[in-house]
Every structure is written in structure tokens, then in C-alpha cells.
Amino acid sequence: MTDHELIWRIAGGSGDGIASTSQNFAKALMRSGLHVFTHRHYPSRIRGGHTYTEIRAAADPVKSRGDGYNFLLALGDSFARNPQQEAYYGNEEIKPLSENLDELREGGVIVYDSGLLDASEIEDFEARVEENNWHVFDPDLRSLAREHGREVMRNTAGVGVTCAIAGIDLEWIEDLMTDAMPEKILEPNIEILHEAYEMVQEEYDVEAPDVAVPEGEHDEEQVLLSGSDSIAYGALDEGCRFIAGYPMTPWTEVFTIMSQNLPEVGGISEQVEDEIAAAALAIGASHAGVKAMSGSSGGGFALMSEPLGLAEMTETPVVLIEAMRAGPSTGMPTKPEQGDLEHVLYTSQGDSNRVVFAPGTVDEAYDQARKAFQIAYEYQIPAIVLYDQKLGGELTNVPASHYDREPNPSLGSTLTEAELEDAEHEGGKFARFQYDPDNDEGVSPRSIPGQKGGRFLATGNEHMPEGHISEDPDNRVYQMNRRMRKLEAIREELDSQEKSHQTQYGPEDAEYGIMTFGSNQGTVEEAVDRLNEAGHSVKALGVSDLMPYPENEVSEFLESVDKCLVVEMNASAQFRGLTQKELGQYGEKLSSLLKYNGNPFEPAEIVEGFEVNIVEGGDLPHTRTKFVPAAGD
Fold first, then answer.
1. Are 348 and 359 a contacting pair, CB within 8 Å?
2. Are 377 and 207 in contact (CB under 8 A)?
3. Does 56 lie in the same domain as 185?
4. Are the C-beta atoms of residues 111 and 73 closer than 8 Å to each other?
């Protein structure tokens, strides 16, 4: 076992407090000076069903989940549907132990609650323990918790056992518990934490496992956030004051965070009957003069297609959030996948006229959420932030200073009543959709309902400058060209900004490239480090701007490499397809490494995919990923 990092997996059933316990433990490790990164796996059930969270902690920054893990705390599933092995879903009670053994590293630690789990029910458990040199601890955490009055405290006992084995100072845990717990439950939890810690030291040989949690120190204050946190905080800081939505995993987290915080800044949150109403309300709120957003996942976002088209035609700014999950249809609701890219780019009728950003990291999620509002309200266009359950749910530490920026309440390209007096009017109505061939941006300034001199018609039909329906061929071409010209202007603005949304990583003169979009970015970067350490010459490009596509930056990257591996979590290589659509001349350089089994990439899978297929040529030795060769191969 390595001592430069701890990768701790806590496993139990949904409803057993796995998420909250892991979040608090991760925060305690961060406060101790370590860098942390979490990965969460959970079923689409309210209670019961195997769930786990991994925490990777190291002295140096970590960008991804690790390759497997080295410490398992298996609490068992106290909400299991049926303990009988003959049941359709098997013995669910023991799955937090039995289903987590394959990825446990050699020399790793297993702690399981013998008050709920019986390891003898796993047929080859003892043989696997011996073969892999695992160190097993079997305290009765359930009985210990019951002695203190609440069975849920076996989670705290498990943390105490972990600290005793891994040599973690209880001070950090106590401080965190003091901040997070109400006084009436704080004292018994601290008692059971210490009792479990001392029990392990007295009853087990804790010197045997080769576990040494590293020591670290942060240069500045850190905060522990998810991509969902960052998207919500970016929206709030950019002046969003209205959100409408309907709960749907995994978008619900952004909706919940916004709903909790909007009242504090004078905003409004509305949970409505369906996603059509949610998007329509957000568009109506924006039309009325407030920065607004909505969002959903999968089939919920599909229902937003018609309102999305309405926003494009009426040129009403709005920000929509799309949290991808495995499909089609209901698919695997709680598992990460990147299969909605084409859906988000092209859904709704007619030619798409929208902006799509796919942030790759937690800090980028904040930046690009703010940029989505800026672009939407300046260019009067829908902007979509596209992410997945991986980015939305994973927690990592980010410098607090990253979020220390001025708010922006501006509504963008709107006119004052004084400016409306001098604006163009026809038939007593404001020429809201005026066509000016000299306007390179294609933006026609808008008025807000209630402004004197700002009256116009807003319709989903094609229309004349003042909004009346028109099917005149010349007017259609004028209006369509003006709307589409916005994308060219937006691309020019994005290309000219000081910091690009595309993240290049690795040596500039590298021979090979790896491209990805969205949440795989950190995993790809760690793989690039390993590949270069192994003697290969590799660099990476994480792409966030999906519409309008960053042709110049991607062209420059692809021109500089001999071959490029495109990494994405879907079965149909949608990002590679988008790249070939925009830059077909590089099709013969692009190969795909795909994963779509409900789990995100591990760095080793990308390393292996590159070495086997780009350097050596051949088939992957396992079936968790899929390689699709270049068009010319």
C-alpha cells in the first residue's frame, strides 16, 4: 500500500448517512491541510441499495478519483430489501462488503461492522484476504452505537476506527463535529468516536497495516465544494434572482442550493408541475426584467425543447442547466454519462441559436455559470451549462479566494426610457427586432415591459421588427441572419478573453494528444502526467465551449499532434462527432476511448487506452472501456 495518499471508501445503504458522513470526513481532512477529492456512487432508490463514497486525500493537489482504493469501511445496508440470497437482487445487506472487494488494492484495509455483516457469507472471502494481503478489522459498530442510544452513530464509530488505524488526529474530527452537529447529539457522538478509537488500539494490531496518512498544509483558506455548489453560487453572484424547476436527479442539487439561497438576496424560487412550465416561467421572468434560470436532467430537459425554441425566436435571455445522466429514457438516473451532448446542442425546432458551456472542474463551473449569464443577457440568447453527476456531486477543495468577486446585476443590452425616446418605432411600437446590416453582433437592444415607449409584440412566429407575424421571404432571411450572426460575435468575444475556457495541459511540443470535454478533464490530466513519466510524449485539451465551437484553439491543438485520443463517457462518441463536424480535416487523427457503464474513468484506464491503442495498437484487455479507431484506420 502506498503512504502518499489515502483513498477511503465508506459503503452502506441509501439512508444510512453515507453521504453526510463522508462529506464531514472529507472536510476534516481538508482542514488538516490535505487536498481531497470525492467520488459518490448511489442507486436510484430513496432507502436501501448499495451506495458508497470515496475520499482521496493527499498532500499534493488531486484532480480525479484514484485507481481503486486502499481503505474500506463497510457498514452494511440496514435498509436491505431482502436478506435472502435467493432474492431477485441477492443478499443486499452484505453488498457494501461483497461488491467492493474487486477494486480494493493489494495490502489494503477492510473494516466491516460485524454487528450487521457476516463475512463468512462471502464464499471466497478468506482466500481473497490472504491472496491480496488485506488487513481485516471486524468491530461490532452496531452494538457500540446502540449502547449510546442511536444506531446511526455507527458511522461516527467507523470514523473513529479509521482514525485509529490510519493515524489521523481526532482533533480535526471533533472540531468538524462541533461545527456541524447540534449540541444535543454532539456529546454522544464525540464519546463514541473516542470509544471506537480506543477499542481498536486495545483489541487490534494497528501497526500491521502499512497505512500512513500524509501531512499537508494549505497556503490559503480552502472551501469544499461540488460542481453543483459552484454553478449555483456563480448564478447568484451574476445576479440571478429567479429560478423555476421540478426535481430530477442530478439537477436537483443546483435547484435546491438556489432555492435555499435566493430568499436571502431577495430572489424567488418556484417548484412547478413539470419542466415545460419551469422553462416557460424562467423565460417569462426574464422577459419581465429579471435574470432567470431553470434546468433539468434527461427527459426533463427534453420537455424544455419547445420553450427553448421560444426563447431563441423571441431573443429572450435565459440560462438553462442540463445535468446529464445515463439514458435513453429513464436509463440509470443516478449514474454519470455524457450522452446528452447532441440533445442539448440541437434539441428544439429549426436552426439552433444558443450557447453551450461544459465546465470541466468545480472552479470552472463557477466561472462558466457566470459567463453563461453574461453572454445570455448581452446577446439575448439562451445559454446552457452542461455537466453530469460526476462533476455535480464530486467534492474537492478550492481556494476560497476564487469566489471572492464582485456581483453583477446588469441586465445587459437593455434600453432606458430616455434611450427608448430616440429608438426606432413603427406604428407606435418599439422596433425591438430591428435589422441593422452594420451591426456585427446581431443584437437589437430590448425594452422591459412597463417602460414608456418600449411596447412591442413577442411571438414564437417569425416576425417583423416590431414583432408582428411575417412570412415575407426577405424579412425571414434578414432576421435569421441577424440571429445567427450572434454566434460569430460570441465566438470572437470568447476568443479574445484573457483566460480561455479550453484548458491545455502538458508539454507544448508533445507528439500525441488527448481531448475531452466536461468532467473528465482532471482525470485526463492525471493520465497525461503518468504517460509522460512513463516516457511518452502527450498533452491534453479539455474543451468547454461546445457552441459556438472553438475552431481556432482545437485546430491549433490537433495540428500540433500526430494522433489524438478523444475521451468521453458515452457509447456513440458524440464529442468526437462534433469535432469532426466542425473540423472534418482532422478526422483521421481522432480515435475514441469510450466508457458508459455508469462509472467515471479512472486515470489508469485512460493510460491503458492510450498505450494499447495509440502507441502499440490492439484491443483493450478488459471490457469497461471501448476503443473506436480513427476514420482512416
1. no
2. no
3. yes
4. yes
